Structure formats: structure tokens, C-alpha cells
From TrEMBL:
The keyword Transcription applies. It comes from Nicotiana tabacum (Common tobacco). GO terms for biological process: chloroplast organization; DNA-templated transcription termination. Keywords: Transcription, Transcription regulation, Transcription termination, Transit peptide. InterPro entries: MTERF, MTERF_sf. This is Transcription termination factor MTERF8, chloroplastic-like. Belongs to the mTERF family.
Length: 364
């Protein structure tokens, strides 16, 4: 009926059975390699093996792959991480595919632990050398001026070379230019927060406007990029819940904006941390929102390891009149540990032995 005679049908059936047998055997061999050579559990190995097509199972050289990655400095745990996230590298041609890609990284100055970290944090090995990687490197070189600068940027954000940068980045640069960013400003974004340039322009414009218009952070402020970084980590509902906590303690929107201008990362604290911190400073110590907003770092320090232990020391010194002059908790909390101990703890060690021991324990 389908044009297959008895003999043809038999050969076709045999071919199917052979391919199935071969694929199953190859898959089993792959699982064994992952378990025995890379430390996968049997469950992990089966899961990773299932992510690759059976047609590719005959096209890999596991020991050569292992040798290559170990040669560039990767240990087996790092190779396992790479294979888990990008199992297709197992079937890449070593001489024609993997080595040339690693070579271009070495040519721009990546080596040793920098090279290993880049490979582990980027799936660039699965990208085309001539369609994505080299065009992206050329684009970065042209914009940043040197391969040294390119190396610094890609170390900062390994995902850059997983994207077609000549297509992805120019719309974001144009947007920033239209918003008034100078070339120096944009280069600063490249060097400090390159991942921002991988997002779509609408997203970037929304975050820039939110920082500038909603929180009144001046674009020329050194905190502007930090404000953007803080805001990108928060969706609208999470941000609004945190703002409501501040408002519930009597903070005005101008107080909140002042805090964000001073230290935007106050918005990244957990809701529980914000509540605990505000209860301590406002309910226990009587601080006003305006003071906390202008001394925003107080809100980010660890309450249990820094703020409370140091406050107890200052409280003891004040009550026992052991130190002259006004004692500022902000100054004390902001001081490096060595300076705080030298000025406020060690000179009075014998007068407060129990408090001293407790402080050392809590601040460790």
C-alpha cells in the first residue's frame, strides 16, 4: 500500500530498530560520562541527557572536551556547571567551534580565572563565532576604543557576547542620547552597568524616568546609576509595598525622595528589614524621617551586628560619663570596625567587661 515490499519493510524496520538501539546506547554512554567524569548524580545526568536531540548523541568526544576545558583552567565542578546550563557544548566540534571561540577571548586579554568565570557565566559557546561573537567584539572595540576596555566590560557582564550587540545596543544608546546623556555618561554605563544596554529601549526609558521624575534623582548625580540599579530589581507592586511601609511611619514622599537621592539601595532592603529598622530608629530612639532620610546609610547597616551593639556601647559611655562631648550614633555606626573599637571600646574594656564580651560576640 505504501510502496514497501516485504523485504523493503523488513529493512526499514531493521533501520529504525538499529537507530533506536544506537541512540539508546549512546544516551546511556553519555549518562555514564556525566556521572563518572563530572560528578553528576544519576538523576541529573539523565535530565541533562534528555535535553539534547538523539541525532546528536553520536557526535561528541567527551574526553577531548574534558581535556580542553581543563587546559583553560576549569575544574570538574565548573565544567559540570557549564554542561548543566548548556549541554549542547558536549556536541560542539572542538577544533572548528570551541577552540576558536576561546581563542578570541584570550586575544582580548582574558585568561586564568577571568576566562574560566566568563565561560561559566556566559552561554557564548553556543553562539555563532562569525554571526554573533566577533561582530559584538568589533562593535565594543569601536565604541570603547581598546580591547583592554572591552575585556573589562565583558568581565563585568559576560552575557554581552551572547547577544548580537550591533543590533541590541544602538537603540539604547540613541535613547540615552535623546534623554541628554553625554558620551562620557554612556561610557560610564558601559563600564559600570553594561547589562542595562541589553534591555529593550522602552524598559530603559521607563526606569530612567522613574529615577528622575518619580524620585527626583538628578541625572548628573553620582547616585543616578545606583538609583536605576535599585529600581530595576523591584517590580511595581514590591516597590509600592515598601513605600507604604515608610509612609506608615510618617514619611512624606519628599522624605522618601531625599533618602533615595542619598542612598537608593535603601529601597532594596526586605520589607521585614525596613520595618525593624524604622521601629528601632523612630520608635525606640525617636529619630525623625527627615533626619533618617539625610543619613540614609543608617537604614542599610546590619541591626544585629552593627547598629544595636554600637548603640549599646554609646549608651553605656553616656550613662557613665566616660567620654566627653556629644556622641553621634551615625558617626559611630559609620566608622570602620577598627576605628570604633579603638575609640569607643578598647579604652573602656575594664569598665564594661560583660558588655565588651557581648559586643565582640555580636559584632564578629
Amino acid at each position: 500500500m505504501f510502496g514497501l515490499g516485504g523485504n523493503g519493510a523488513t529493512k526499514h524496520l531493521f533501520s529504525i530498530r538499529f537507530q533506536l538501539f544506537y541512540s539508546t546506547a549512546a544516551a546511556t554512554t553519555l549518562v555514564d560520562f556525566l556521572v563518572n567524569s563530572l560528578g553528576f548524580s544519576n538523576k541529573e545526568a539523565i535530565s541533562t541527557s534528555s535535553k539534547v536531540t538523539r541525532s546528536r548523541l553520536r557526535n561528541y568526544e567527551p574526553q577531548l572536551l574534558l581535556d580542553l576545558f581543563q587546559k583553560v583552567g576549569m575544574n570538574k565542578t565548573q565544567i559540570k556547571t557549564l554542561v548543566s546550563s548548556s549541554p549542547e557544548v558536549l556536541f560542539s566540534h572542538i577544533d572548528k567551534n570551541l577552540k576558536p571561540k576561546i581563542k578570541v577571548l584570550q586575544e582580548i586579554g582574558l585568561s586564568g580565572s577571568d576566562l574560566v568565570t566568563f565561560i561559566n557565566k556566559s552561554n557564548f559557546l553556543t553562539r555563532g563565532l562569525h554571526t554573533t561573537i566577533k561582530p559584538s567584539l568589533d562593535y565594543l572595540r569601536e565604541y570603547l576604543g581598546s580591547y583592554d576596555a572591552v575585556a573589562r566590560v565583558v568581565k563585568k557582564e559576560p552575557r554581552l557576547l551572547s547577544n548580537n550587540l550591533p543590533k541590541v545596543i544602538p537603540p539604547n544608546i540613541l535613547l540615552l542620547q535623546n534623554l541628554g546623556f553625554s558620551r562620557v555618561d554612556i561610557e560610564t554605563v558601559f563600564h559600570r552597568r553594561p547589562r542595562y544596554l541589553l534591555n529593550n529601549p522602552e524598559w530603559l526609558e521607563r526606569v530612567v524616568n522613574q529615577a528622575e521624575k518619580n524620585f527626583n534623582v538628578p541625572r548628573e548625580s553620582r547616585m543616578f546609576l545606583h538609583a536605576i540599579e535599585a529600581l530595576v530589581s523591584l517590580d511595581e507592586s514590591k516597590l509600592e509595598r515598601k513605600l507604604d511601609i515608610f509612609r506608615s511611619f510618617g514619611w512624606s514622599d519628599s522624605d522618601i525622595c531625599a533618602m533615595v537621592r542619598k542612598l537608593p539601595y535603601c529601597l532594596t532592603s526586605s520589607e521585614a528589614k525596613i520595618k525593624i529598622t524604622l521601629k528601632f530608629f523612630m520608635n525606640e530612639l525617636g529619630y525623625e524621617p527627615s533626619y533618617l532620610a539625610s543619613h540614609a546609610p543608617l537604614l542599610k547597616y546590619s541591626m544585629e551586628k552593627r547598629v544595636r551593639p554600637r548603640n549599646e556601647i554609646l549608651k553605656f559611655l553616656k550613662e557613665n560619663q566616660l567620654i566627653k562631648g556629644k556622641l553621634s550614633l551615625y558617626t559611630a555606626v559609620s566608622s570602620p570596625e577598627s576605628r570604633f573599637r579603638k575609640k569607643y571600646v578598647l579604652p573602656f574594656k575594664e569598665k564594661m567587661p560583660e558588655l565588651y564580651d557581648l559586643y565582640i560576640k555580636n559584632s564578629s
